[in-house]
Amino acid sequence: MSHPVVALQVQRRAPLREHNSFGLPAVAASLVRIEREADIRRIVDHPEWGRAPKFILGGGSNVVLTRDVAALVLKIEIRGRRLLRETPAAWIVEAGAGENWHDFVAWTLEQGWPGLENLALIPGTVGAAPVQNIGAYGVELAERFESLDAVDLVTGRTVTLDAAACGFGYRDSVFKHHLAGKSVIVRVRFRLPRPWQPVLGYLELERKRAETGIPAPDARTVFDWVCAIRRAKLPDPALLGNAGSFFKNPVVSVEQCRDIIGRDPEVVHYPLPDGSCKLAAGWLIDACGWKGKTVGRAGVYERQALVLVNRGGATGAEVVTLARAIQESVYGRFGIRLEPEPVIV
Ligand SMILES: Cc1cc2nc3c(=O)[nH]c(=O)nc-3n(C[C@H](O)[C@H](O)[C@H](O)COP(=O)(O)OP(=O)(O)OC[C@H]3O[C@@H](n4cnc5c(N)ncnc54)[C@H](O)[C@@H]3O)c2cc1C
Fold this sequence. Notes:
Order of helices and strands: HEEHEEEEEHEEEEHEHHEEHEEHEEEHE
Low-confidence stretches: 1-6
Mean pLDDT: 94
Distance between the termini: 37 Å
Strand order of the largest sheet: 6-7-12-10-11
Bound molecules: flavin-adenine dinucleotide
Helix content: 25-40%
Radius of gyration: 21 Å
Oligomer: single chain
């Protein structure tokens, strides 16, 4: 008699190099592709796999694999996208967790439902987007979020979480804390507000507006601008392994910010509504002389000091060693502890 999980095709000793945007070498002891929500329940109910530790993997664009993965890797490939409803105030759109994020953004625009254009070209899957509340060019996922469905890896039960239950913060959510690794996001719903208003406050988008002489761009134009800015600034993981921004931008008190500005008037900073201040981590790293440097086979990207790259054949340990050295020098000079953005495994 064939066991249900045999039909799920658990792959033994699965190489993960192709499944992480840093291109780091690691092997999963076992890996299963999740194409349906029901696949998760079959694993939960399985006598062997049910109890095994699990690691949830989307596109692998926000992970640093420092070793082989002993846990059962659940590679999320649940597809599907549709308009759920349309009201005078919003389009509510739903997508499966395994949909490619950028393709989903492009598809919503093709359908005539704008709102996600500032988040174009972020690698990875729809299901991982709420995990760190992805953000770029003045928009965070939380601002376009309606709700999500997630399956509990112990009970197999599906729950629906709204924005409050997700606890979104800056590159943060409950999926990085008490639900980390415990709950698989299977579907995400987005609220795309009507009438659409472009978000153009970001300096580089302002520049595009001035350069092109287009004062009121449509959503497709904003999408094209964001793609062009990102392509010029960020390395393509297909050519140079990386996980995007390696550190979060630190948030400091007004006093700390004033102190740093006193010593380094050029420091790039953004005042926040609560009176605190966000500092550009890339600027701090650059000020410590790291841009373009290489340690072992890991390095700091020449055009953006916030991005660590695999110069070819790097291991996760080499990336982490470089990251620690950067953290130490930023702490030594500015007294600020940089926090990594990707998940270090
Ligand atoms: C070139 C480049 C540029 C980037 N730019 C940005 C940017 O502008 N803004 C930004 O916010 N991020 C950016 N990132 C980071 C990354 O693209 C996002 O964090 C993305 O959402 C990760 O998606 P993923 O599917 O690759 O997740 P993975 O790397 O596979 O997983 C990330 C984490 O989420 C968990 N996870 C994944 N899927 C699920 C699921 N379905 N349910 C529960 N947990 C899950 C994993 O266990 C892991 O802890 C960039 C990365 C790169 C390489």
